[in-house]
Amino acid sequence: GQNIDQPTEMTATEGAIVQINCTYQTSGFNGLFWYQQHAGEAPTFLSYNVLDGLEEKGRFSSFLSRSKGYSYLLLKELQMKDSASYLCAVTDSNYQLIWGAGTKLIIKP
Amino acid sequence: NAGVTQTPKFRVLKTGQSMTLLCAQDMNHEYMYWYRQDPGMGLRLIHYSVGEGTTAKGEVPDGYNVSRSTTEDFPLRLLSAAPSQTSVYFCASVSATHADTQYFGPGTRLTVL
Lengths: 109, 113
What we know:
The complex is a heterodimer.
Chain A: E1 3-5, E2 9-13, E3 18-25, E4 32-37, E5 44-49, E6 53-57, E7 60-65, E8 70-75, E9 84-91, E10 97-99, E11 103-108
Parallel strand pairs in A: 2-11
Antiparallel strand pairs in A: 1-3, 3-8, 4-5, 4-9, 6-7, 7-8, 9-10, 9-11
Chain B: E1 4-7, E2 10-13, E3 19-25, E4 31-37, E5 44-49, E6 56-57, E7 64-66, E8 76-78, E9 87-94, E10 103-104, E11 108-112
Parallel strand pairs in B: 2-11
Antiparallel strand pairs in B: 1-3, 3-8, 4-5, 4-9, 5-6, 7-8, 9-10, 9-11
């Protein structure tokens, strides 16, 4: 079966750095996405990785290792507005998105 | 440019009632998707369409119908609502030529009593 695992919840301090991990087992791979979802809102796109390595976008970076079926999202200089759920999703061989259950990130002052 | 719009935002149904959730996009995207999101679970694909006149089943299609008579519109029909269909429903669209980003509508929160 297809499976995406990410921690259910993480807590971090304002101004700090946090890394949210995602491991996946899917039938084929055509890209990995990270989305941010604030409570009661729709997911919004953060990053897309299709090749191994690190993609940096301001305070957010995303890493992919296809051989290990592993990705992480790195958030730097955490702000209170970063409190949200972070969803990992993988496009499989049929170009369908398989979604993880999301990681709820709680930022404390 | 409104992006992806969904109506209604909230709805309460009684078991056995039918209803249609509307989704429209004005970005001329070829691909459109319907997901449901339940607490503690990832988004689950209900139905999707890769172009006008086409539809396909996703992971959890039972109890739902869709149609794609225009590029812009992708309505989701609940034939006979059940409490298990209580969920938040999201519609999303993607451009076939820039398939690295899904654009989501604001969601419909549906409760079936």
